[in-house]
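tool=predict chain=A
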Amino acid sequence: MDKKDQIILQQLDVIRSMTENNIKRMGSDFWGTPFEGVGKVPTPAAPAPEKNAPPTADSKSGDAVPEKTEELPPPEKIEDLLSELDSYIGLQVVKDEVHDLINMVQVYKLRQQHDLPTTDMSLHMVFTGNPGTGKTMMARMMARIYRSLGILSKGQLVEVDRSGLVAGYVGQTALKTQKVIEKAMGGVLFIDEAYALNGRSENDFGQEAIDTILKAMEDHRDDLVVIVAGYTELMDRFIHSNPGLESRFNRFLHFEDYSLDEMLAIFDMQCKKGCYEVDEETRGMVRDFIQEENVSSVSFGNARGVRNLFEHILVAQNNRLAKLETVTRDDLMTITPDDVLRARGKLDE
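tool=predict ok
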């Protein structure tokens, strides 16, 4: 291996490392507010205890000191959460519904404080829409909002689907589902493609999971919120297949597909989070790329499809940079028209 090959390999390692770090820093909410951790120095983690180390003893009594329970951060300010919510790309109808819900909860709590009668208020929700339209992101936001309003004690999101709730033998499903519910206590249990819980056969245990969840919703109505999600028609059929589900889920939020302009804005946000730059020519080509691939919103996946295209473009950029003898900071930050063309398969490597 000559010196030039060694330089290329070294540059390739640097590119891969920086790209991996950038992608990790983008977070799961890939169309929300820009990543705020860029440039911040991480707090050093406390050293892990040695394996098989004895429990820490109290210096005076010699007794083992009980482990401290994890302290939760204080609830976020509702004003900050609303500002973040409003910054999300698209989802205007959903945003309006969430604003209405927040107002309803705040008035409900005020009536309680003034000893005025209140009607039963169900906070469980049904999210409908195609993949990649922000349902999981909004479920996470609702958990944070409910904690801010004092509805939930912790505000975490626990996400599952049928496989995380249903077991293969009689009696096991209830135990498996109960463990998930315990993990979600104080927060939101988010069940994706919830209609899959409907019995597929006489020996199916999905109904056992549904019954366990309905009981938990009744027993822990003060500190557990359940959100079910999936395709619109299937979710409508699922909710109306069971009187218990109908009575507990009466709030529906529909997530529309993203428009072409909104998906391009999501791409722009991806670039901003990852410290990538595109000029207007490149951006126009990205728009064409999205339009070309988005034949079906279901198969393309809305924001997920945009993220996949973004990652394909980064692969093309990496392959281009790997052939350079030297790579500058500007090179690492720039996405070129050729990168987009290669990602589209319209230009040979």
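Residues 341 and 347 are 6 Å apart (CA to CA). Residues 22-54, 56-62 have pLDDT under 50 and may be disordered.
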